[in-house]
Give the backbone structure.
Amino acid sequence: MAFESLSDRFQAILKKIKGQSRLTESNMDEMLKEIRVALLEADVNFKVVKEFVNQVKEKALGQEVLTKVSPGQMLVKIVHDELEALLGADQCEVNLKARPTVIMMVGLQGTGKTTTSGKLAKLFKKKFAKKVLLVAGDVYRPAAIDQLCQVGKQVDVEVLNMGDSISPVEIAKMGVEKAKNEGFDVVIIDTAGRLSIDEALMQELKDIEDSVSPHETLLLVDAMSGQDAVNVARTFNERLKLSGIVMSKLDGDARGGSALSIKHLTGIPIKYAGVGEKLDDLEIFHPDRMADRILGMGDVVSLVEKVQEEIDEKEAKKTVNKMMNGKFDLNDMLAQLEQFNKLGPLSGLLKLIPGMPKISEEDQEKAQKQMKKTKAIIYSMTPRERQDPSIIKNSRKLRIAAGCGMTSYDVNRVLDQYEQMQKMMKQMKNRMPNGRFPGMR
């Protein structure tokens, strides 16, 4: 995951300084040296590292900090604030007030512009209930138009396909005109890329920009390309009015150096982050929350938002009521597992919870496999068995195990897990005022 190695280093460094009774030039210099090395190893630009360290030192050795009761805690705050400033400080989402809001996607070939255009379309449709039009403006790359049409089908968004016989400038104009006439809220223009930056590419993009005056021109860069991403951003920004960056493959870059360098060196904020290959795997980039994650403070706000988006509130309340009233069955347990799966990989969820211990990839895989096994075993049961697990005796266990290719031991494990949940709910109910959760009817 992004910033993983840097996060581990920072947490270790700050844990050490928290134990100091006061901050001095000596212990500060030692800590700042470790921070400098950690940032450089994370592939952060050396100029950015130098300025970051100087800023932290200047603020930490000020009289205001030295008079604090807990200088270690104050230092954590200073480092957090400086990280947030480095990542962009203010949250910079795309402004969707204009109707239609015209967004132009630009970048080099191979970074995933077409897929990211689809991800943006899905995000705007799902999170903001916007009617989105995708415009196929890449007339050069073989199958680019077909790919966008396929992506459009997957996210249930209309695609303007004018083929490859019309110029990209005309296609962009038609897209904006169609959006105005047919009541679309957002237009996303997928433009062509090249393997490297050339004059023909930049001129064509400039012509499109001049012809449709996009509200947002978003540059897609690959986090895995390191400091090359910064150079690409600088070059594009010299010719176009870039308003933001979408950083793809941020989940695959454990160092995250380009993300920590790009805003400071180019002035262009990161607005979205690609965190996976699925069309749901695009996040709004929040600098403050990312700083929290790097320093091991979790990200409860993002976790709550994820739960609100993916979990059916009515179903959740219904399940809680059944659990508290002793009517919770294996159908409900299965529904809970399905809901939990919607939240994404376990590793990603744990990072959002403050103070959670780091678990190995091996343990994560084991947990995911165990959940799949549990679901398979419950699916192998009859409707009556799911409703009343008490009827599942040895002969039924053998049949259930044979039906899902597992053993009766595995079936027993699921039944034990179910019983444990029931016991836990009874205990909770006994501790609650009037035997129910506050606010429950």
Observations:
- Confidence is low (pLDDT under 50) at residues 65-69, 437-441.
- The domain at 305-435 is CATH 1.10.260.30 (434 Repressor (Amino-terminal Domain)).
- The chain is about 60% helix and 10% strand.
- Strands lie at 101-107, 132-136, 158-160, 186-190, 216-222, 244-248, 270-274, 282-284.
